[in-house]
UniProtKB/TrEMBL annotation:
This is Aspartate/glutamate racemase family protein. Keywords: Isomerase. It holds the Pfam family Asp_Glu_race. The keyword Membrane does not apply. InterPro entries: Asp/Glu/hydantoin_racemase, Asp/Glu_race, Asp/Glu_racemase_AS_1. It comes from Streptomyces plumbiresistens.
């Protein structure tokens, strides 16, 4: 679940690990973007999207959105667990800090500098140089597959990223869809290859662990796909097909 197509990265990661999994994508085009909403309003929208997905009796629910995880995870767990395990998405600050070098966290303006993100930095990156980079308009540009806006937003965030940074944490799930553009914008000549840390792979693996399942990437690819748009059954939004992850999911058979 997510407000928009930021969930593509985690969903595609699940698809690659378990091609036989039936997937339910629950988006909220009527209420997006969630970022500017109050925590209470965002939680209300997230609960509605989650309950629309829960009606399909999934084995687990992944919150494919950092902002929704920050504000709505406790409420969603209280409503759905233990019947449906709820897996949140947390920025990969811990593995980035383990690398030891200076790193940057690219996140939405609402998340940048938030007590939540600062808490993760204090818990996992004490003594490591960290730069918080607000990425104005990048999530919205990715959501609409607006090439010019993506280029401008990535360039603006890259300009705020210190030259000595060796690692970038992608603190918004939308950013994982344009990770190679981010790499190209931040990589400095003469510096070691830039390391990017997203969350999709770890979130997909955690979902399988919560279910006691094992990856089976060679399983028969017979899983189905159901798309919910603010609770209504529909199809993948057209901008999703601009990304590799969206095209992968477009090949999955619709549920019958």
């Amino acid at each position: 679940m997510d407000s928009g197509i930021g969930l593509l990265a985690a969903t595609a990661a699940v698809r690659r690990l378990r091609p036989d999994a039936d997937l339910v994508l629950s988006l909220d085009p009527d209420g997006m973007p969630w970022g500017p909403r109050t925590p209470q309003d965002l939680t209300r929208r997230a609960v509605a999207v989650a309950e629309a997905a829960a009606a399909h009796r999934p084995d687990a629910l992944i919150i494919g959105c950092n902002t929704a995880t920050v504000h709505a995870l406790p409420t969603l767990r209280a409503r759905l667990e233990p019947g449906i395990p709820v897996i949140g998405t947390v920025p990969a600050i811990k593995p980035a800090a383990a690398g030891g070098g200076p790193f940057a966290i690219w996140a939405t303006p609402a998340t940048t500098g938030s007590p939540y993100q600062r808490g993760l930095i204090e818990d996992f990156a004490d003594g490591v140089a960290v730069t918080e980079v607000p990425c104005h308009g990048l999530a919205e540009a990715v959501e609409h597959a607006d090439e010019a806006a993506i280029e401008a937003a990535v360039a603006a965030a890259a300009a705020l990223t210190p030259d000595e940074v060796t690692t970038v944490v992608l603190g918004c799930t939308h950013y994982e869809l344009v990770s190679e553009r981010i790499r190209a914008a931040v990589q400095r000549p003469g510096f070691p290859p830039l390391v990017l840390h997203g969350s999709a792979g770890a979130v997909a693996a955690q979902a399988l662990r919560r279910l006691g399942e094992q990856p089976a990437p060679r399983a028969v690819a017979d899983g189905t796909l159901t798309v919910l748009l603010s609770g209504r059954e529909g199809s993948l939004p057209e901008p999703a097909l601009a990304y590799e992850e969206g095209r992968l999911l477009a090949t999955v058979s619709p549920a019958r």
